[in-house]
Amino acid sequence: MGSLNQEHYGQGDNVARDKNLFIENYNTFINLTVPEDLREPVKEILSDISNRKIVDAKKKIDLIASIKNQTKEVNDLFLLLRIKADLVEDANSHSEFSILNEIVLSSNNEMIKDLSLSLLLRLEFNKFGKDRMMDRYNATDVKGPFSRALLLELTLSEEVLQERASTGKHGLTEEELIGLISGLFRVKNFETALDVAIFLVDYFPSYNSRVIHLFARGMLLNQDIVGDDYWLLSQKEKDRITSLIEETLKLYTESEGNDFRLFNVIVPCYLFTKESDERLRDICKKNIESVDKIDHEFANDFRILHLNDQEQESHPVNIIKKCQHDNAYKDSVIKGVLSNDLISLSDFILVRGLIEDTSLIDWIDKGGLLQTDTAKLSELFSKLKLYLYVEQNDVSRRNSKIVDDIIEEIVNYDSNDFKSINSTFIFNISEDLRVVERNNHLCEIMGKYFDNKHSYWCSPIVYQYLIGLFETGLYQAFSSLYDIVDNTDKPILIHTMALSIYYSHNEMEKALSLIEEHNANQDLDFIRLKLHVFEKSGDFSAIEKVVNNIDYKNFNEPTNSLLRLSDKIISLGYTSFGHDLAIKFFLDSPEKNYMFVSHICLRIMMSNRSNHEFIPSDDVEGVVCGVSYNDNGKELTKIIVAGSSINSNYFMSSDSPVAKVLLNSKLDEVNKVGMKRLILKERMPPYVAVLRLAHEIRNESNDGTDLFQSISLPSDPEEMINVIKDFLPKKEPKQDLNINENIPVNFRLDLIAKNEQVKASLISLTDKNIKIKDFEAGGDDIEGDISTDIFTICYICINSFVNFFIEKDIKFLLIEEDAKAIKLWLEAIEEDEYKTIGLNENGNININTSESIKTYHGEFIKNLHDIQKIIRIHYPKIGNIPNELNILRKFVGDDYLKNIYTSITNKTPYFTADLMANIYFRKVLNMKVIDFHKYINEAVKYTPYRERERGVLLHSAGMYPYPLSIGDIYNLAYSKNDETGYFLGELIKLYSGRFNDNINLYALMSQLFFRYLQKTYMNNQIFNGEIKKTDFSFINPYGAKIDRIFYICCEAIMKMKNDLTCEQNLARFLVFLLCQFTSNMKFLNLIFWLASNFISGHFLSMDKLNECLEELMVIEE
User: Which domain of life is it from (predicted)?
Assistant: First the structure.
């Protein structure tokens, strides 16, 4: 490809040419004029002339003309044939005027006279023009069908030709009809020409008539698709081209490849169809000289590409071939090209294939450019081509702004400007964009290139565009294009993508219709989606029918598609399919198929749904059973294969001595076979042996990239724990993503616990290492149903705010996957099926079971059940995922992405406890979001403290944001659930330095401390002076810690943002504490004792504190 603009070889005809086209019919003339013994030679000569084999034709003419005693008519005939050959060879030939004129004047045969006149008139027309030709025509008495046909071909107006075609064609001879068709070609009235050609075939059927009809079809098709690209045609237009090619091939076969005229269709069709038709390519290979006569430039390229022509040394293909064997020459070629600042696209493609270092990237960085036409769009595309090469070959420069800017400029052009760009170049650019994972840009450019026709055939570029739209999540654009792309050439992959869209968007009617349309298709991914659709629609009889029609014996090799299909079938309860498939593939090749077999066996083991209890079958075709036995002290498991001579690490023949002994042996019985001492340990169904062997091979083959690992546990409990510890992944310290509160917590859930959103949400809400941004006001009011996420549902439930939303009749909308995830989590807990094991930060084993979850999160579980009353499932409408959402694919789970997409396509407001996600949705995605801060505060006011105290406790421990009130802090100070004051102290510390300025912190801290004392000690204890003799820190490790709370209150006072010193602030706190609650000296002494300890521990001045206290006490008095 030498240019990025639209290009073609030759004259620019799409599928047919009328240059050097000779469609005259001489059959009537030959039959009436030529002696019978010369008819075949004359036909051969005419055929050679038509096929431009002029030298061969003239040799035959000279040979026959040399025969003596021919009649004058025969001699005249061969003179005419020679002249005809001269005219074909050179249309401007005029040296035979006198001969033709003499024949016209002297011949007694009217047919010869007429043929001679027609040739003479053509010569006159070519040399002197229409008027001189007409003078001769009018001056001649004899005007036969050839001369009248010539008049129709060369001179008559379109109106006259149209009239003759409409009303006069029945009165015309075959020769005149051919002339009429040629004339209509001349005035470019191809539609009427085709009508006349059909008439010609009907009334004068012959090979020549069919060739003429072929060209009439081709000319009309040319006219209809002029300026169009083959890849952007409608199916109807494409079918017309296909039909034209098929008819051409029939005629080519019929003519035994000897009709040169057909290459006027073969070559243009081959080029227009992007050189994709192998049959046309083979014809060109066999007839390269004929191709050369049609298009010399194309023929030269074709010789190099397909006929290994070495003569054109400067051609890129031959340069590459030479470079493969000559490094010095290769270096000189690269250096020569890169010495220029401006190179052609073909030179770029050449050096791109030769360069192995960064020299081409360096050339681009220094400003190297591709040659283009003067259009700015072409220049931008050439720059894009270069910088995509940079991104492809330097991963560190992916997603560069320079490429972003170039594409932004490109897509700002009008769609009409794109018509000048070669579709093959656009296709190649799209391939480059896919390589660097810029599918969204691929779709932007393709969208500008497509001209919004009403229909397309599924060409490579349409196919590429459809895949790009699907993978980018532009489902509405995909569906719109899918609907106008004809199904004739549409691969099943595209139908599978459409079915996936219909299924995920709950368009069940469309899904079932598509399944019915392609029900017989055996594509495995399509079948798998069929099962999904039938399951969703509850059609279990259809599922059974599909599964029963799948014969595992038909599968010859494991593929990802087969694995996904088997997973689905097993999940539906048809475990026997996986059973049979695993055995088959293991028998085929254990070493090659162990991973596939192991996966299926694990899927069966983990399947909690079965149409009947899974019992491995003992009856397996070609297999006797599996055995585990001891062979001279070595434990072995093998499969005994019936009547086979195979013996290996995994199989043994039932005819082998060892197999015969084991099959007849009792368990633990010692048997001797030659030098072998055999003890049968277990006889098992073939599947069990397959499972064990597949897992064994998988273990032994694991190079560290496979997460699967089976371990043998010792019987001693302590040793067992140590072995388990070694295999459990170590809990890593704080990760940047977790401690960064500016990253939406929903974006982190998949990193916390992949595909377990409830678990991940609970962890994020109860792990203080995971930071979550505090709530902020902002958003809309709730006016109807609202979209939300699992994290928000869990936040509401863990804080017991559920009744507020039930009372307000607020409906939460979740996608089906999220609603199902909550349901499955609850079922696993209720049915005691939940169990996780891991290492905590201290390296100790931490086991969570359904029982432990119920104990610790009982209220949460109850709330999660209750909130089901107001959860509704909603499905996305077919739309386009915004690019701003698409860029999150690498970071967030598919379900969360679908959740946001569903909210966008349904235009439902979003309600989330994830502030940073809220901000992102509102500012970047322009989504309507609900003011979570407002409604969660209302929920706090509605819900009694005792019901939501757990949330306050978790918040105080720094777990997550909470809409805390002063009343909540007072309640916590009194709470019997915080005997040690731990949570109260943590809560004060959490807000130290950032309490609301409107709060009288002296009063708040003094009240909290006093209330804590009241909760812990009776009044007579508080005011008993002896209390200070007690070391409160160690009186009870789980009891009250008065000094700790006092010190924390003092710390909060010291962090006040005012102009006072630490001593002044502490003095105000102490005065407020003593004066507000009591003047009892014993209590006063206690406070002074605590204060003195704090002062000394913080290197403050006791004297300054006393001075401040004296001043304040005077004021108070």
Answer: Bacteria
Distance between CA atoms of 719 and 174, rounded to whole angstroms? 103
Q: Are 1064 and 1108 in contact (CB under 8 A)?
A: yes
Per-residue pLDDT reduced to its tens digit, 700-709: 888 877 777 6
Question: Tens digits of per-residue pLDDT, 708-737?
Answer: 766 666 777 777 777 666 766 665 544 555
Query: For residues 538 and 532, what is the distance between their CA atoms, to the nearest angstrom?
Result: 10
CA distances from 958 to 627, 648, 772, 953, 1043 (A): 58, 61, 10, 9, 22
Q: d(Cα 145, Cα 173) in Å, to the nearest integer?
A: 7
Compute CA distances 46 → 23, 377, 1023, 1084, whole Å. 11, 52, 133, 132
What type of residue is 732? E
Q: How far apart are CA 951 and CA 913, in angstroms?
A: 14
Give the pair of three-digit tokens for residue 1011. 């209330």
Q: How many C-beta atoms lie closer than 10 Å to residue 328's C-beta?
A: 8
- CA–CA distance, 825 with 827 (Å, rounded to integer): 5
Asked if 241 contacts 16 with a C-beta cutoff of 8 angstroms, the reply is: no
Could you tell me the end-to-end alpha-carbon distance of the chain, in angstroms, rounded to an integer?
100
Classify the phi-psi angles of 10: left when phi > 0, otherwise alpha if psi is within -120 to 50, otherwise beta: left
pLDDT digits (tens, 9 = 90+) for 478-527: 999 999 999 999 999 999 999 999 999 999 999 999 999 999 999 999 99
Helix (H, G, I), strand (E, B) or coil at 21: coil
Backbone angles phi, psi at 672, to 5 degrees: -115, 130
CB 1095 within 8 A of CB 1102: yes
Return the structure tokens found at 1045.
Answer: 């709370």
Helix (H) or strand (E) holding 623: strand 623-631
* Residue 385 near residue 404, CB atoms below 8 Å: no
Give kind and range of the element (H or E) at residue 672. strand 670-673
Q: Considering Cα of 359, then 365, then 366, then 372, what sign does the dihedral take?
A: positive
The answer to whether the CB of 200 falls within 8 A of the CB of 177 is: yes
* DSSP calls for 203-236: HS-SHHHHHHHHHHHHHHHHHHTTT--GGG--HH
Of 409, 392, 391, nearest to 400 by C-alpha is 391
Task: Assign 835 to helix, strand or coil.
Answer: strand
User: Which pair of structure tokens corresponds to residue 473?
Assistant: 């999540």
Residue 910 DSSP SS3:
strand
Closest by CA position to 571, among listed 552, 543, 539: 543
Rounded Cα distance, 987 and 975, in Å: 13
Q: Quick check: 358 and 387 in contact, CB under 8 A?
A: no
Residue 846: strand pairing partners: 838
Model confidence over 410-468: pLDDT tens digits? 999 988 888 888 889 899 999 999 999 999 999 999 999 887 778 999 999 999 999 99
**Token pair listed for 415:** 């769609």
**SS3 assignment, position 135:** helix
* Spatial separation of the C-alpha atoms in residues 1066 and 1006, rounded to whole Å: 11
CB 473 within 8 Å of CB 886: yes
**CA angle centred on 437, ends 435 and 438, rounded to 5°:** 110
The model's pTM:
0.85
E strands of 863-1019, at which residues?
871-873
Give residues with Cβ within 8 angstroms of 497, minimum separation 6.
466, 467, 470, 478, 482
Segment holding 812, helix H or strand E: strand 812-814
Do the Cβ atoms of 763 and 753 come closer than 8 Å? Answer: yes
**Residues 1055-1083, buried b or exposed e (16+ Cβ, 10 A)?**
bbeeeeebbbbbbbbbbbbbeebbeeeeb
